[in-house]
Every structure is written in C-alpha cells, then in structure tokens.
Amino acid sequence: GARPFGSLALTEPAGTEILEMATGSGRLFLRLGGGGRAERILVLDSASNEILGTIAVTSSAPPAAAADPLK
C-alpha cells in the first residue's frame, strides 16, 4: 500500500495556484500559475517527495523586424 510521506512545503510566491495535477512514471506534475510569475510545471518524485525540477511555460513572441542601421 501507500506509505505516508510526511509534509512538503512548496516555496512559491503568495497568490500561486495549482491549476492542474497529473501523475505518471513515479512523478507528480503540478501546473502552477499566478504569484506574479510565469506559468510553470513543478515535477516531484512521488516516492521520495523530492522536487526534481521546474519547467517554465513561456510564449514565444514573433521576432522583431531587424532595423536597418543605414536608414
């Protein structure tokens, strides 16, 4: 059966919300938003409760038109 894992404190800015949660391959994926930061996905090892990393979700803006320095 499942064993207790104790507690885990996520150090995120005030206003951060868990938007979505998913599991797979022994990992817990939390999609976080708000708190004045870009949307991100926090990846945790579900057996050890260790935070493995954060994936930043960013939008790519179209490249700005190159300025011609001779004009």
Radius of gyration: 18 Å
Task: Tell me the β content.
Answer: over 45%
Would you identify the regions where 5 or more consecutive residues have pLDDT less than 50? none
* Total count of strands: 4
Class based on secondary structure composition and strand pairing = mainly beta
- Anisotropy-based shape: globular
Distance between the termini: 71 Å
Could you estimate the helical fraction of the residues in percent?
Answer: under 10%
Instruction: Supply the number of helical segments.
Output: 0
Main sheet properties: 4 strands, antiparallel
Question: Could you tell me the mean pLDDT?
Answer: 84
Going across the biggest sheet, name each strand in turn. 1-2-3-4
The succession of helices and strands, N to C, reads: EEEE
Describe this protein's structure.
Strands 1-2-3-4 form a four-stranded antiparallel sheet, with no helix packed on it. Strand 3 (37-45) and strand 4 form a beta hairpin. The protein is 0% helix and 45% strand. With 71 residues, the protein is mainly β. It has strands at 16-24, 27-34, 37-45, 51-56.
